[in-house]
TrEMBL record:
Protein name in UniProt: Lipopolysaccharide assembly protein LapA domain-containing protein
Composition skew (Pro residues), residue ranges: 8-26, 129-144
Tree of life domain: Bacteria
Pfam families registered for this protein in UniProt: LapA_dom
Transmembrane segments: 43-64, 84-107
UniProt feature, compositional bias: Low complexity: 119-128
Region (Disordered): 1-32, 115-152
Organism (species): Streptacidiphilus alkalitolerans
Length: 152
């Protein structure tokens, strides 16, 4: 029996499937060292809620530890209140005074600043030309007139 030269060669291995590249992960925002990510409304809300919860827990602990009654006198008013209630009322009164004072100052400053009546320039428009100052006397105190010396 004669063997053909093709039969003498070892069998070719089956073609291996091409390797599948690993999936590329979604691009994450990269931040250079020292730079911060911009704030979002969600992150601001999250920080606010966590801060409020921490303050609430501290307030509950404060009230629980200062529940014994104390005598409180203010002007002609006298009463007996839990210490925590008296201290919280004093803090709330101080905060109210600070808010009223700050509000009055803001109103005062807003009235002092003149309002611009001109409409804003459209985007991309050239800025308005700057006028040179009017000629006139130099700013500052007026020079004193020369005094005559009495002759001797």
């Amino acid at each position: 029996m004669a063997v053909s030269p093709e039969e003498q060669l070892p069998p070719k291995p089956a073609a291996a499937p091409e390797p599948v590249p690993p999936p590329v992960p979604a691009a994450k925002p990269t931040v250079e060292r020292g730079r911060r990510l911009p704030r979002t409304r969600i992150s601001t809300a999250w920080v606010s809620i966590v801060s409020a919860l921490v303050l609430l827990i501290l307030l509950v602990v404060f009230i629980a530890q200062n529940a014994h009654p104390v005598d409180v006198s203010f002007l002609m008013l006298h009463g007996r209140f839990p210490l925590a209630v008296a201290l919280l009322a004093a803090v709330a009164g101080g905060a109210l005074i600070a808010v009223i004072g700050g509000t009055l100052r803001m109103v005062q400053l807003r009235r002092a600043v003149p309002r611009r009546k001109a409409a804003p320039a459209p985007v991309g428009a050239a800025p308005a030309p700057v006028r040179p100052p009017e000629p006139g006397p130099a700013p500052g105190p007026a020079p004193e007139p020369a005094k005559e010396r009495p002759q001797e």
